[in-house]
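re: ur question from yesterday

yeah so i grabbed the chain u mentioned. its 335 aa long if i counted rite. heres the sequnce exactly as i have it in my notes:
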Amino acid sequence: MKRSLSVLALLACLCTPAQAQSVAEFYKGKTIRMIVGSSPGDYDSWARLTVRHLTRYVPGNPNFVVENMPGAGSLIATNHLYNRAAQDGTVIGSVSRNIPNYAFAKKPNANFDPLKFHWIGSPEMTNRGCFARSDLGINRPEDLFQRELLVGTDGAGTSLSELPVLLKNLLGMKIRTVDGYKGSNDIVLAMQRGEVGGICQTVTAFAQSAQPMLDAGTFRILFTTERERVPRFKGVPTIFEYTKTEEERAILDFQASALETGRPWLAPPGVPADRIHALRRAFDATMQDEDFRADAAKRGFVVNPRTGEQVEAVLRKVAAFPPQLLARMKELAKR
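ran it thru and got these structure tokens back, copy pasting raw so excuse formatting
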């Protein structure tokens, strides 16, 4: 009996340090893999910029390595993070803001539950719009009911194809998608060559690759996708001004809800709560760091962050979208 008690006591001593391991002790000497669900571009640039400063605020000061895992509008990366990645806090990700809505709308291959991810935060908020060459005779949204616009995308079901397909099927706009491009930068080059006439994406991303063309008037923004007009785009209408029914407006609200999550970061479902808390607070501190903000300004980035808790609250609201409208959206996503 005494021997048994001694063995149990020894086992307890051996187990206690691991169980009581602090976040700093866990991360010390480790490397966190930051998986970006797209090719080099705006998400990638934000991720690489942020982790250079984030390491100072994560307890234990781990190193970071950024890995691109593009494909299917971030679905490949998101499925990996949910189903295959380490669940201990050594792997986190930055994926398309449209990813949660893919799952809520029950799109094919969305093998994850957005509400089971741990959302860390977002470094910026932005608006979304559709842009076109200025020499096509398509100067206003009204023209899209009369003239066809070829819009470049990086494949069916991605964030770059989702909006134009929805506008075609929901509102009857004459938009035809052209797939096969390797991200938004490739599409902007195709617009310059005249291969396609337009693109639908965030205004931040478009400005990074095409601001000179906007300034010169070679390209123009036709409309934005939020309910209210964006003050900095004077005279530019919102797509909601071309809706006729409450159902159309509700569906566009759901589509626009992705913008409220910003450019979201997330961690796999099984990561311990204390590590998630540490990552969230480290992210928040980085967003306020003067050196980080200075580096962001040099790149033309505007830091307008959201906390992980704020992102999670948005997603819980979106998850309550009426099932019948989700079913309708699934039909509207078909080409």
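noticed a couple things. Confidence is low (pLDDT under 50) at residues 1-18. also The first helix runs from residue 2 to 19.
anyway ttyl
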